[in-house]
Design a protein that fits this description.
Elements (H helix, E strand, L loop, with lengths): L2 H17 L12 H10 L5 H14 L3 H6 L2 H8 L5 H19 L7 H5 L6 H11 L9 H9 L8 H11 L5 H14 L25
């Protein structure tokens, strides 16, 4: 990896930090367990919708035991509007059982332990590690994947390859924020269906820049 690649990446993220100085995770939570549930629900669903659902959900279910003891049908009804509710309910209940059986009902503050939980992959583990425990991690969602390719960091659809490439390009202290910066820019400017290239602060550094819209 050349110095020029790192320098260009540094410039891109400096511009994004200036553009979104208060950027943070969009999911609303008060503890690691709530973030775990919210992140499972966020698959194939907007963070805004998840926040609407969890506002009432977290009043009703306060612990892994609460989620585990409720019937599948009742839990599915409570999370219905996030989509894929059958699978999400199964994942949540299996994950909660594992927390009860192996972690005393607590979310482990360890990346390797997190990815072993049912229904938790690298992305979900990275979200929790970085945002609940301050462990350096990069969560690759659809926005991070798309923008990493458009900005020329990598040519790959493999989330794990993208994660490790970004970790090569960025210092550890910027890992967690990088996901939020790319996701925010992907929602506001670099929109999938019609990127607003003429409004983009990264125009001079982006190989996918389209001047005419």
């Amino acid at each position: 990896m050349s110095k020029s690649e790192k320098d260009r990446t540094k410039k891109i993220f400096k511009l994004l930090k200036n553009e979104y100085p208060e950027v943070e995770i969009a999911l609303e939570f008060y503890n690691p367990f709530q973030l775990l549930i919210a992140t499972i629900l966020s698959a194939q669903c907007t963070d805004e919708r998840v926040n609407v659902v969890t506002k009432d959900l977290f009043k009703k279910y306060k612990s892994p035991k609460d989620f585990f003891n409720v019937s599948n049908e009742e839990l599915e009804k409570d999370i219905f509007s996030t989509g894929f509710y059958h699978q999400k309910a199964k994942s949540i209940k299996a994950c909660c059982k594992e927390l009860i059986d192996k972690h005393n009902g607590e979310v482990p503050a360890d990346f390797e332990a997190l990815i072993k939980l049912p229904g938790v992959g690298r992305k979900t583990a990275s979200v929790i590690a970085g945002n609940a425990f301050g462990i350096p991690a990069i969560a690759v969602d659809t926005h991070v994947k798309r923008l990493s390719n458009l900005l020329g960091f990598i040519k790959s659809e493999d989330p794990e390859k993208i994660e490790f490439r970004l970790k090569e390009l960025l210092p550890e202290k910027d890992w967690v924020a990088s996901s939020h910066l790319l996701a925010t820019h992907g929602r506001k400017i670099c929109v999938a269906r019609k990127p607003k290239c003429l409004e983009c602060v990264l125009g001079d550094l982006c190989p996918s820049f389209e001047p005419a819209e």
